[in-house]
């Protein structure tokens, strides 16, 4: 009988040990609801990381994007510009609000929003040449929000993106769901825009089992986010409502996990960066394999290490050959996100990207096992299998 192989995951939760103590504390004090002292402490820890911006701890990153867009005033018929190469949760909240998503291609340095294509999208929206998904003309308007994403922890070109946004007076909502721990010129991702979003989903660099946060330098907006996330209850014993509310607050038990995780964030970042360094050292000399390097001033948390697999230079081995080959050894790897403009739900939305860089990245990009809890042995096993598949 074949020996059963140990599964090597793409990215699995990595507890420090303290989380359980904090969860016990929550139980012992009976703070089990979406209210309690651990939520406040968790928000404080995130705020300490995010240059003292205000923080609302929420039930997911998706909820944080939804509330951020509501607070930016996004409504039916509005235009919101979003990076195309991302997870669908960056874009779905645009649809929740009846607004029109307009997708923008990536550039090859960081895999994130291309500033040149961004400006083209803004101009088209202003000139009224965009059509919605039903082929109807979208009325000429200034886009309400721009959503750049820091994919796999690599900061987007926020210098250029911010100056374009400022020229036109458009607020930015930064999807930093994958990028807590990353910085650009020492400034934390999530603090560049009017709003920043983090995710603490189970597969992210740190996790609360499920959760997210909305951050902003505007304390009043964050106060409003907390209010909307707890069913928009006015201050009255009989439950008075003047606004439509949401049930989006993080539970105190999840926040207890989050406190333990925030305490080890920098260790987790260091470990993921070490994974990247090892992969790069061992694999970068293979013809057809390339890595996304940090431009000067960029610091990525390296949530996932991604490689580009160019079959013209690998003797015909494609990204998919590599993925399937690794799967045979119980190694989980994954294609890079499929761009939104190629997704059935969004393919008739406007897209700006004359060189279709993100199509190419999707075709050749592969995410390697990147957990901070992978052993040296696990990593060497993955590396050996990749080498075997490429030098067959
Ligand atoms: C994970 C993720 C989200 C959504 O976060 P959830 O907490 O899972 O709702 C949004 N955007 C990106 C880029 C993500 O990776």
Oligomer: single chain
| Main β-sheet, spatial strand arrangement | 1-9-8-5
> Can you tell me the overall shape?
globular
Here the CATH topology of the largest domain equals Aspartate Aminotransferase, domain 2
CATH class bucket of the largest domain? Alpha Beta
Descriptors:
4-stranded parallel sheet, alpha/beta, 392 residues, binds pyridoxal-5'-phosphate, Aspartate Aminotransferase, domain 2, Aspartate Aminotransferase, domain 1, 2 domains, 4-stranded mixed sheet
Descriptive report:
It is a single chain. The chain has helices spanning about 20-30, 35-50, 60-70, 90-95, 115-125, 160-170, 220-230, 250-265, 265-285, 320-325, 355-365, 375-390; strands at about 55-60, 80-85, 100-105, 145, 175, 185, 185-190, 195-200, 210-215, 290, 300, 305-310, 335, 350, 365-370. It has about 400 residues and is α/β, with parallel strands linked by helices. The chain has 2 domains: about 20-260, Type I PLP-dependent aspartate aminotransferase-like (Major domain) (Aspartate Aminotransferase, domain 2, 3-Layer(aba) Sandwich), CATH 3.40.640; about 265-390, Aspartate Aminotransferase, domain 1 (Alpha-Beta Complex), CATH 3.90.1150.10. A 4-stranded mixed sheet has the order 1-9-8-5, sandwiched between helices. The radius of gyration is 21 Å and the shape is globular. The mean pLDDT is about 95. Bound molecules: pyridoxal-5'-phosphate (PLP). Pyridoxal-5'-phosphate binds near residues 87, 177 and 201. Pyridoxal-5'-phosphate binds near residues 62, 87, 89 and 175.
